[in-house]
Amino acid sequence: MEQRTGRPRRSSASSRRRAANQEQIEFLQRQLSEFTSKNGRTEIDGVIVLDKAAAGAATVRLNYLVERVVEPALQLRSNKPKDPVAFEYLAAVEQKTGEDWIGVSLVLSTASRS
Which residues contact 101 (CB under 8 A, 6 or more apart)? Predict the structure, then answer.
């Protein structure tokens, strides 16, 4: 009877699973690196479907909200100890997306999202 020596051969299905798993690991490591880097960007794909009654040009306006861009700040002011105190609610707008915002319109609103 013949004896096998050395390591057993991997089946092709096992090799394919191993390669797929390695590819998935590398993808998840890239994603983790993007999430933890200072300049990481979040990209979201969307689909816009237009249904027009007649052929011709159309204008599409896309608005979106960016989380944690505005940092609220409170300030109390008074000229003298017995003067009334002015209460100011301020906001600091910070752009941390890593993208160039030159020429971007910014609208601030006191409305609450529902």
Answer: 95
Give the whole-angstrom CA distance, residue 48 versus residue 60: 9
Task: State the DSSP string of 22-69.
Answer: HHHHHHHHHHHHHHHSTT-------------SS-S----------TT-
Is a pLDDT exceeding 60 seen at residue 1?
A: no
pTM score of the predicted model: 0.29
Better pLDDT: 9 or 77: 77
φ, ψ of residue 89 in degrees (nearest 5): -105, 115
